[in-house]
Design goal:
Strand order of the largest sheet: 14-11-15-16-18
Family: Belongs to the glycosyltransferase 90 family.
Shape: globular
Bound molecules: 2-acetamido-2-deoxy-beta-D-glucopyranose
Radius of gyration: 34 Å
Protein name: Glycosyl transferase CAP10 domain-containing protein
Domain Glycosyl transferase CAP10: 697-991
Largest sheet: 5 strands, parallel
Number of domains: 4
Strand content: 5-15%
Distance between the termini: 73 Å
Transmembrane segments: 52-69, 200-221, 241-261, 282-301, 313-334, 341-363, 375-393, 414-434
GO molecular function: transferase activity
């Protein structure tokens, strides 16, 4: 297809008679292609984050394109048929009205009109169109802002609305006209013709389309996420109203656009340049909204930065989206100028809903909603009936308007039939995403965890002597062990550590730092400590003793005190050096993938040499570490991002550029992203804890965790800054060390006679959680709605949407995914999940909003009260959860969900030592149902009965307790830290490539 043809096919003011067939085909194919591409583009576009900005650009560009193309076309036409275009288009708009043929705006019927009234009318139509478009932008804005509260989709009923309009306004005025009878028609055609003349036929067929499309959409719609749509807030009821309003506005806009198109195309001598008018109608709202933006900018300096400086990633998204929308609109306009209003909308909606159904995670709902084969049959036939009815109506319309220059169908019929065919095929043969499992997935996962744990244990402690350990070290990490490795080995074995070989976490954390020279590392450490703004505590190791840097904020003193407390156990063996400890809970360092990968590669290349190392660190190391100046420095390579979204600028940059986390913005937080969870899930359940930590395949996490949404303290860097942190999400480059929090027993497992830890069977069969809203700060932006803790409390107490749960079937008691109302869920499963201490870390309207939704918070309960319950939820706070270790040590089962990972990652096996939960929390009920058991008798026989799996739960509790007391003891923290600092000592040594322990 050459550009010339493409251009002319998009051209919109083309005279419609003698339309070349290929041009028609091009524009309808273009429209179809646009409809195929647009939904998926919009679903993942960064442009939707700023709906008004984006609307302005899209409207302006589309308007300008339409006008521009029209100009080009007009210029060309003037050369060939000079007579066709008059200089003043608007004035003669009434020409076609007086001919009164098939007009859409029938209010005034077919009467004679003065030129003036018709011109006035055109102006009126234009103004209403501009107004409707302006309002539509704001409605879009409101819907996007409250997208978690949207309900279904009303779009399938758009053709119905238009048909009603057509019926009520247009056809009523055609009563007088005699439809052209097809005298010589075959009997088949005659039946069609008679059927189609029935007054209600069009209305009826579009209604049928609406019903079966919305059935189809609801059967294939994604599940609801756990993102909070609070029923106590206005958005809960307002957003659906906005959705409806949007539907009516769209109907109005379509009617008006077709009205304008009709003016130009129905009459042979028309001089109304419809497309230029439409172009201006698009441009004007863009101008109006820009003016509104300018006023807001002027009046509200706080918003100025946000309004004027969009992020680069947004601009790129906007560019793509604008291009796609405008090309589609141009094609659509070209198709629209040849088709009728109702059929145009029918085709567009049919295509969109059909595609949505085709591309959804098909089947998860079809089965859940209990669609039996019979219903499937009904479903398929409705699609057919709607299609046939449509064909009937179209045919009749064609008959009727034979005299008019418009033919009726815009989109090729074969395309519609192939969509219908594919749909039917999928209904009949589609493989469901969440199939009904034959056995319970958790049984499989527990079995798998058993062998996984054994494997891990074997490789972590294979060496039986120091020389073994050295050999294994060289084999695993391609280097000599650091100096004093023998002392470390003695330290570890004398404290009966069973983990001798597996220190992959240390290796992975330090690997990138090998790309920096020792001097550079020392310089950067100095930069961090010398500037108190970095929120870091400095610790100096000199001649086997420790000193804490002077310029340390007092509030975090305990943390660094704790660190030195651990280090004192082995400090005599450490070389002179300075260390920077992160005082914030949030992690700090993410180097973009593009930068980091070459560094890692270079670091691996510098690794081993067959040479044996020189034992002992360099002497005289202390001069290498510059003194911390009295006067703090002010330069910093950290950027302040507290209270801001951090996911795309920091959290995801460690992912490959082609990964979903880098490319997709899943702004529609209402939908559960099943494709994001699928790689690490088995049905509803988390199957791979390691993989679930990676954000790269999970773009939806941008809206599902406090640290991504609005962290309390966030100073991040894209450069390798040697920062020691207690925990970090995967993809960060902080160096993990064992937190002093647990070492210093800030929270402790200590049952007492008052709060005993009873035998498992005597614990209450209930899911228990208490906590504060401290995951992030919600400063008025509504960020709390996505935070894990708030979602957890909402899900267990206030949820309004039906919940999908894996439950026993009524008679067979086989597992089966079932939708239950929240009331029924509450009747089946016990939970006690509440916020304590009121609502903290909020600002603006987010404080009262949360109080409305969650109440003031339950009274504080003693930490040791936890052991009264069987199932304890553990969720991240601003960083890692400090309670997890006590939970493990207890006789209860921890249900852990986390983005943050700690030093011991890998030592615990999910489903053996704890029960993992996806951050989306969508499998929470299913998991609880498995362990706690259900008795469906309570809710009229829709659910069967499962005994509580107390044996399995108790096993996990006991295995967790034993293993925690084996590899997560305080001794294990010391051993890890000791080894880490020996490695760090070597890494910062100028002779690091020669150094190494050898036997
Ligand atoms: C879990 O994911 C990790 C990382 O992708 C992978 O190496 C490992 O093989 C997976 N484990 C299982 C049991 O699939």
């Amino acid at each position: 297809m050459d550009a010339q043809k493409l251009l002319s096919s998009m051209c919109v003011s083309c005279p419609t008679h003698h339309e070349p067939v290929h041009r028609e085909l091009t524009s309808s194919s273009g429209l179809v292609a646009g409809l195929v591409i647009l939904p998926s583009l919009v679903r993942t576009s960064f442009a939707i984050d700023r709906p008004i900005h984006s609307s302005i650009v899209v409207l302006a560009v589309c308007g300008a394109c339409i006008i521009g193309l029209d100009r080009t076309r007009a210029l060309k036409d003037t050369k060939s048929h000079r007579h066709r275009y008059g200089p003043i288009p608007l004035e003669d708009a009434n020409d076609r009205l007086t001919s009164g043929n098939g007009s859409i705006h029938g209010e005034e019927g077919v009467g004679k009109q003065s030129p003036l009234s018709s011109l006035r009318r055109l102006r009126l139509v234009f103004l209403i169109l501009v107004g409707a478009l302006c309002t539509r932008v704001e409605v879009l804005h409101q819907v996007v802002r409250g997208v978690q509260c949207t309900r279904g989709s009303y779009y399938p009923f758009l053709p119905f609305l238009l048909a009603v309009y057509d019926f009520a306004i247009v056809r009523r005025h055609r009563q007088g006209q005699k439809p052209d009878e097809e005298q010589d028609a075959t009997s088949f055609q005659a039946i069609f013709a008679r059927l189609s003349r029935h007054r209600y036929m069009l209305v009826f067929s579009t209604l049928l389309l609406g019903l079966c499309s919305s059935l189809e959409l609801s059967a294939t719609a994604p599940l609801s996420s756990t993102y909070v749509c609070a029923s106590t807030l206005p958005a809960f009821s307002l957003v659906p109203v906005y959705q409806l309003l949007g539907l009516f506005l769209d109907a109005l806009i379509l009617i008006l656009v077709f009205h304008i198109l009709d003016l130009s195309s129905d009459s042979q001598q028309s001089n109304v340049n419809a497309h230029r008018i439409i172009g201006w109608a698009l441009l004007l709202p863009a101008v109006i909204w820009t003016a509104v933006g300018a006023v807001i900018c002027f009046a509200n300096p706080d918003d100025r930065r946000w309004i004027l400086y969009p992020e680069r990633i947004y601009l790129w998204g906007l560019f793509n989206l604008t291009l796609a929308i405008c090309v589609t609109v141009l094609f659509a306009l070209s198709v629209a100028s040849r088709s009728r209003l109702v059929s145009f909308s029918f085709l567009v909606i049919f295509t969109l809903t059909g595609l949505a159904a085709l591309t959804s995670d098909w089947g998860q709902h079809v089965q859940v909603l209990g669609f039996s084969d019979k219903l499937k049959f009904v479903f398929v036939t409705t699609v057919f009936v709607a299609g046939i009815l449509y064909a009937v109506v179209e045919m009749s319309a064609e008959n009727r308007s034979r005299s008019s220059t418009r033919n009726t169908s815009g989109v090729p019929g074969w395309f519609l039939y192939s969509i219908a065919g594919l749909l039917i095929f999928r209904v009949l043969f589609g493989k469901p995403y969440l199939g009904q499992p034959s056995s319970h997935p958790i049984d499989i996962l527990i079995g798998r965890a058993h062998s996984q744990h054994d494997l891990w244990k074997k490789q972590a402690s294979s060496s039986k002597s120091l020389s073994d350990a050295v050999a294994v070290y060289r084999q695993r990490y391609h280097r000599n062990p650091p100096p004093h490795f023998d002392i470390w080995y003695d330290y570890a074995t004398s404290r009966s550590s069973i983990v001798i070989d597996d220190y992959d976490n240390i290796h992975n954390d330090l690997l990138p730092y090998w790309s920096l020279s020792p001097a550079e590392i020392r310089q950067r450490t100095w930069e961090i400590i010398a500037n108190p703004w970095s929120d870091a505590g400095g610790v100096h190791v000199r001649a086997g003793s420790l000193e804490i840097s002077a310029n340390m904020p007092g509030t975090h003193r305990w943390m660094v005190d704790g660190v030195t407390h651990i280090m004192e156990n082995f400090v005599e063996w450490l070389p002179d050096m300075d260390l920077a400890f992160n005082l914030n809970d949030e992690a700090r360092v993410t180097v973009p993938f593009e930068v980091l990968e070459p560094l890692k590669e270079a670091s691996s290349r510098t690794a081993l040499s067959e040479k044996l190392g020189v034992a002992g660190f360099s002497q005289e190391r202390s001069p290498g570490w510059a003194l911390i100046p009295e006067q703090p420095i002010t330069d910093s390579r950290f950027q302040q991002r507290s209270f801001q979204r951090t996911f795309h600028e920091f959290g995801a940059v460690g992912c490959p550029p082609s990964s979903r986390a880098r490319k997709e913005r899943l702004w529609n937080v209402k939908d559960l992203c099943t494709t994001c969870a699928a790689p690490h899930s088995l049905g509803h359940f988390l199957s791979n804890w390691t993989l679930s930590a990676s954000v790269c395949h999970q773009p939806d996490l941008a809206d599902l965790h406090g640290v991504n949404l609005s962290p309390a303290a966030y100073k991040g860097s894209h450069e390798l800054m040697p920062m020691f942190s207690q925990s970090k999400p995967a993809g960060y480059n902080d160096i993990l060390y064992p937190s002093a929090w647990n070492y210093m027993d800030k929270v402790k497992y200590a049952p007492s006679p008052e709060f005993p830890d009873p035998p498992f069977s005597e614990k209450e069969n209930t899911l228990f959680w208490r906590g504060a809203t401290s995951e992030g700060v919600s400063p008025g932006s509504g960020a709390w709605k996505g935070m894990t803790r708030q979602r957890l409390v909402h899900l267990t107490n206030n949820v309004t949407t039906p919940q999908l749960i894996l439950l026993p079937q009524p008679r067979t008691n086989k597992p089966s995914y079932t939708l239950l109302t929240p009331t029924n869920v509450a009747a089946l499963l016990n939970s006690s999940v509440h916020l304590v201490d009121g609502i903290a870390r909020c600002g603006g309207r987010d404080c009262p909003d949360q109080v409305k939704e969650f109440g003031g918070g339950a009274p504080r309960s003693d930490f040791q009260h936890h052991w009264h319950y069987r199932y304890l939820v553990d969720a991240d706070g601003a960083g890692f959860s400090g309670r997890f270790l006590p939970f493990l040590q207890s006789g209860s089962v921890p249900f852990k969900t986390a983005l943050f990972r700690e030093w011991y990652e890998g030592r615990l096996t999910a489903w053996r030592h704890f029960v993992p939960l996806d951050l989306r929390l969508h499998g929470l009920w299913s998991t609880l149902a498995y362990f706690a058991g259900v008795d469906g008798g309570i809710i009229e026989g829709r659910v069967g009965k499962w005994e509580a799996k107390a044996k399995e739960a108790e096993d996990i509790a006991e295995n967790g307790r034993k293993w925690a007391n084996t590899v997560l003891r305080k001794e294990d923290m010391e051993i890890y830290f000791f080894r880490l600092l020996l490695e760090w000592g070597r890494l910062t040594d100028d002779r690091r490539d020669e150094l190494g322990f050898s036997v």
